[in-house]
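dumping this here so i dont lose it
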């Protein structure tokens, strides 16, 4: 199957160092919604793996997070596409969970859900932890320059990391 896994903040929607704490703060990155719709209409399954430590930190609750994901699904559906499984890590950095990126637990959860292998599956992120999670399970690490991507570009990237301007450029590439 054609599976693409996306990080959320900084890839699909604008990110903030103050976290994305409300539906009003959840603002799609230009071209991202259309990119997801184009890919899903072309037969790609687009899943999401997102750290949401703001839950553990008490910045927002599960219902607020769910409202953001409902909005994402609604906007993509309005373009004729659909969003696949969205998995989030609700834990904080000190909780010792197995799902918080750079650990690959969410990627493995998505693979198990779809019954597919991870090696070579593109995982698109804006943070170094996204790329490290990808490498840990032999996904193809893909960095976008949106969100924290330009900051991440200055760090030591996993070997073979692909770099694109944004999610729209990734869709253009995959739909060639
Ligand atoms: O990029 P994804 O995984 O979708 O989500 C990232 C968010 O959960 C937040 O992750 C935080 O990192 P810490 O969780 O505090 O280390 C910060 O980087 C915030 O700026 C960011 O909004
Ligand atoms: Mg991110
Ligand atoms: Zn977790």
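and the seq i came up w/
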């Amino acid at each position: 199957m054609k599976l693409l896994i996306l990080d959320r903040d900084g890839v699909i929607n604008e990110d903030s160092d103050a976290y994305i704490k409300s539906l009003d703060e959840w603002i799609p990155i230009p071209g991202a919604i259309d990119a997801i719709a184009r890919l899903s209409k072309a037969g790609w399954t687009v899943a999401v793996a997102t750290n949401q430590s703001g839950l553990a930190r008490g910045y927002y609750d599960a219902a607020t997070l769910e409202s953001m994901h409902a909005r994402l699904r609604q906007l993509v559906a309005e373009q004729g596409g659909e969003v696949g499984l969205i998995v989030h890590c609700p834990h904080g950095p000190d909780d010792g969970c197995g799902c918080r990126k750079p650990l690959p637990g969410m990627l493995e959860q998505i693979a198990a859900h779809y019954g597919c292998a991870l090696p070579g599956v593109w995982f698109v992120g804006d943070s170094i932890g996204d790329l490290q999670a990808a490498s840990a399970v032999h996904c193809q690490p893909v960095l976008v320059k949106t969100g924290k991507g330009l900051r991440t570009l200055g760090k030591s990237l996993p070997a073979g990391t692909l770099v694109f301007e944004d999610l729209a450029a990734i869709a253009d590439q995959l739909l060639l």
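Residues 102 and 130 are 6 Å apart (CA to CA).
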